[in-house]
Design goal:
742 residues; six-stranded antiparallel beta sheet; 40 strands; nine-stranded antiparallel beta sheet; single chain; alpha+beta
């Protein structure tokens, strides 16, 4: 059959559209996931048919992010077709914030017509909705996410060609339609197409958390293998495995799978597959780190502790390390320049403690790690003069307050909720009243549709079980709050380091309410707010004055017209909304797996299973800001809470001889301009060269320098541009490419 398809393509009877690996959720995946769709999808089409798609097509995906025109255009496609949400303007130019445009068709009727009557209805509906147009596309055929025209479909259309007087029906493809219209007269639309199936942003926390981890680990694997290639002279053989791992992930970013609307058995299989991607990507990261460390001569006083950071900006913040360390031995910590630095002991992950055999040591310290690089610290079995060990007897002297030179956080003694969050540098108070937990009755179906079902804030109060300061030292303090409502419990740990300008919140949730939803609410005191939320390789700017549920990725900023407000980063959440002056982050949503609100769907004989029942842990960062916050700061706090660093405690050894010595601080690359971030370094698809992905974050045309492998390259990047460069590994020649590396 495939040979027959190839023949039809050659004959011009089979139009190649799509250009991606699969029809994904077009809102929630990260930017690099969309790039890889085009990279692998278009290369496949080229290899099988000798041509690539020029028209992208995601007819059933639940909304479309605003960066897609740029991604499509740089993946060889100048047109796009979708159906959800349905717009009043069926044909237009869609423009992303960098200025890229694609000719776009929003289907006025369905993309499938299984039988005679639906085919007729699709034609009639298209005519009804596009009265002001002299020509329009109308789809036909059988299938959901696949299939094709049937003989019955074709007979129906032949009959309509003979009997329908109000329109002429012509068999054609999208290409012919686009050729036959005056594209210069098309209106230009910008922004995201969203607010369709809003419940999909928040359903199935475990899937979304694992998906985020898999995306980030795959990016880290590429960067760490690139670092290892620079130091050791060639790319690891594991670099050839990255495409397979991305395809497993992309298969499970299919719009119904990532949208949480599949049957439970399919969802469970997806969790297993994505977990496998996480595990293998983590293994590749560990192998790359070991290659790098083995190449270094680590002899000297004590033992090396390598800290790795794959972000495009230097990491200047706290790290938390756990080592195997004889519990009766002293420990001194030295920075890469050999100077003793302070650290604070904290409780180990292992809760079995021995005082005479073995042991572990966990501690926190302030670290500096270069962009896309590593720093070598050292630990020595010597008495430390700068160690800080919290004393238990002073912990609860002030369990309602965390404060340093930059931030003040206060808690309500009756409810345990965060009641005040002040940016001390400007005096700005981010909260107008105490934060709260909002429990909703949520009888919406899996997609988030109501249809006479109930969805309401129950206005319940969680009970404060305890609030106490569980860590208090010179470097960091931690307050733990335990809350409960019926069978649901939440433990929150608030962390503030002496040099931190934002508050980290670890949330350990035990959720046991079917058909309910839980939100974390932070009152900002404004009914209408300006928001910035991360999307795929970009930021969505919205003015929000309603209570619809919107999507975000790893950060959200809510501010007033002067740019002051509250920034929130997360490690696994994708939904928020505004209500009565509160910004509310959806933490958990319990719906019935794959349940749609068709009439009389409830059946007493059936058994229903619910999503998100059980335990989960997720993290937030809360950053009040009394001035406009640059978007690089939003990316920084998002990186911070999504695993910004890794570490390896190594032995003292000579070099393996398979690589160069790079000293105690190493950086593969960075960009001089603060508004341009290095997002990815990878092996080129067709050779051993390096491919770099850069992103302009502040909306400024910029000329700057790219520092890579100890060489400087002058580059120019446009506003909000995703720029891809290929750098020859031998001669250092640099050239700009599209996202397909062409």
């Amino acid at each position: 059959m495939f040979e027959e398809i190839k023949q039809r393509v050659e004959e011009g009877r089979w139009e190649i559209t799509g250009g991606w690996f699969i029809e994904p959720d077009c809102i929630l995946p990260c930017g690099e996931a969309f790039v890889r769709h085009g990279l692998y999808g278009q290369r496949y089409l080229k290899s099988r048919f000798g041509r690539m798609a020029q028209i992208g097509s995601n007819v059933d995906s639940f909304g479309h992010n605003p960066v897609l025109p740029q991604i499509l255009k740089k993946s060889g496609m100048d047109s796009y077709v979708f159906m959800r949400p349905r717009l009043d303007t069926p044909v237009f130019k869609w423009e992303s914030s960098d200025g890229s445009q694609v000719n776009t068709i929003c289907l006025p009727a369905e993309y499938t017509t299984w039988f005679h009557e639906p085919t007729v209805q699709n034609v009639e509906l298209t005519l009804e909705r596009t009265k002001d147009y002299d020509k329009m596309v109308c789809c036909y055929g059988v299938g959901n996410h696949g299939g094709g025209p049937t003989i019955e479909n074709i007979h129906t259309i032949h009959e309509l060609q003979e009997t329908m007087e109000e329109a002429e029906l012509v068999f054609a493809g999208y290409t012919e339609f686009l050729w036959d219209i005056n594209k210069d007269d098309l209106p230009v639309l910008t922004g995201a197409f969203e607010l369709i199936n809003q419940g999909c942003y928040s359903i199935d926390s475990l899937f979304k958390q694992k998906n985020r981890q898999a995306e980030r680990r795959l990016v880290k694997a590429d960067i760490l293998m690139s670092m290892a290639s620079d130091i050791c002279g060639e790319f690891m053989k594991e670099a050839g495995e990255v495409e397979r791992l991305w395809k497993v992930l992309q298969f499970n970013e299919f719009h119904d799978t990532m949208g949480g609307t599949t049957i439970k058995s399919a969802r469970d299989e997806a969790i297993m597959q994505i977990s496998g991607v996480c595990a293998r990507a983590g293994e590749i990261c560990a192998l790359a780190i070991q290659h790098i460390v083995n190449a270094q001569d680590t002899r000297g006083g004590g033992f090396p502790l390598f800290l790795f950071h794959t972000g495009g900006m230097p990491y200047e913040d706290y790290v938390e390390i756990e080592l195997e360390w004889f519990c009766q031995s002293p420990l001194k910590l030295l920075d890469p320049e050999g100077r003793e630095i302070p650290y604070q002991r904290v409780h180990t992950d292992a809760k079995v403690r021995h005082t005479t055999l073995g042991g572990r040591r966990r501690f926190v310290f302030y670290a500096s790690i270069p962009a896309c690089g590593f720093a070598q610290y050292r630990v020595a079995k010597e008495e430390a003069s700068l160690e800080s060990t919290p004393h238990m007897e002073i912990l609860n002297l002030d369990a309602l307050r965390l404060e340093n030179a930059y931030l003040l956080a206060e808690f309500d003694e009756k409810t345990g909720m965060l009641s005040s969050l002040i940016d001390k540098e400007t005096g700005y108070q981010a909260l107008t009243e105490a934060s709260s937990l909002r429990m909703y009755l949520d009888e919406r179906d899996a997609w988030g549709h109501l249809q006479d079902r109930r969805y309401e804030d129950l206005n319940v109060n969680f009970h404060l079980d305890s609030i106490e300061k569980v860590e208090s030292g010179a470097l960091r303090e931690v307050i733990r709050v335990r809350l409960s409502y019926e069978d649901t419990g939440l433990e929150q740990l608030y962390y503030l380091g002496a040099e931190e300008r934002e508050l980290r919140v670890e949330n350990r949730l035990r959720f046991n309410h079917t058909w309910h939803l839980l939100k974390l609410a932070y009152p900002v005191g404004r009914e209408t707010v300006e928001t910035r939320a991360e999307t795929a390789y970009g930021v969505i700017h919205r003015t929000i004055c309603d209570n619809a549920e919107y999507n975000m990725q790893s950060f959200l900023d809510v501010s007033d017209e002067n740019g002051v407000g509250l920034a929130i980063a997360n490690d696994s959440k994708y939904a928020f909304h505004m209500e009565e002056g509160r910004v509310q982050i959806t933490a958990v949503r319990s719906a019935i797996y794959a349940q749609g609100n068709s009439p009389d769907w409830w059946n007493e004989q059936e058994t229903y299973e619910y999503t998100d029942i059980g335990t989960q842990t997720f993290w937030l960062v809360l950053k009040p800001h009394g001035n406009v916050l640059p978007e690089r700061e939003l990316y920084r706090i998002a990186d911070k809470i999504n695993g910004a660093y890794g570490y390896l405690a190594d032995s003292a050894h000579t070099s393996s001889g398979r690589g160069k010595q790079v000293g105690n601080r190493f950086s593969l690359g960075k960009v001089e301009a603060e508004n341009v971030s290095l997002m990815l370094v990878k092996k080129a698809e067709d050779d051993g060269d390096f491919v770099l992905r850069l992103l302009e974050t502040e909306g400024k045309d910029t000329e700057t320098k790219l520092m890579f492998r100890e060489r400087n390259y002058p580059i120019a990047i446009g506003r909000y541009e995703i720029a891809t460069y290929k750098i020859n590994r031998d001669g250092g020649e640099i050239r700009k490419t599209d996202l397909l590396e062409q």
